[in-house]
Design brief:
- By secondary structure, this protein is mainly beta.
- It has a single domain, classed as SH3 type barrels (Roll).
- It is built from one helix and six strands; from the N terminus they run ββββββα.
- Strands 1, 2, 3, 4, 5 and 6 form a six-stranded antiparallel beta sheet that branches.
- The longest helix is centred in the C-terminal third of the chain and has 12 residues.
- The termini are far apart.
């Protein structure tokens, strides 16, 4: 998992919860992640909500690798929504201009 350090990663936990976070460090049984959000159903479909409401958002958190069922790089479209949810900055879609 070291090769994914610095990337936005989607984790499916053993509990069934889906989590998106930036992987800052993979170290043995622990993953250090920052800005974790959970994927949750809402009125307009799936949304992103903070995974931890009372934690200091500027501090990294640790996730035990034994709680992770599967993981993968986050899809680009979802990654843009993740960035928007964290920063409020909307990332424009990539468009091809053909002429």
């Amino acid at each position: 998992m070291k090769h994914l350090e610095g990337s936005t990663v989607t984790f499916k936990l053993n509990s069934g919860e889906e989590l998106i976070a930036k992987l800052t460090r993979a170290d043995g049984d622990w993953l250090e992640i920052s800005a974790p959000v959970s994927v949750a159903p809402g009125p307009q479909g799936l949304g992103l909500v903070p995974s931890m409401f009372t934690a200091d958002a500027d501090e990294p958190v640790k996730l035990n690798i034994n709680n992770v069922a599967i993981y993968a790089l986050t899809d680009d479209a979802v990654k843009m929504k993740y960035i928007e949810a964290l920063t409020g900055i909307r990332v424009p879609e990539k468009k091809l201009i053909m002429g």
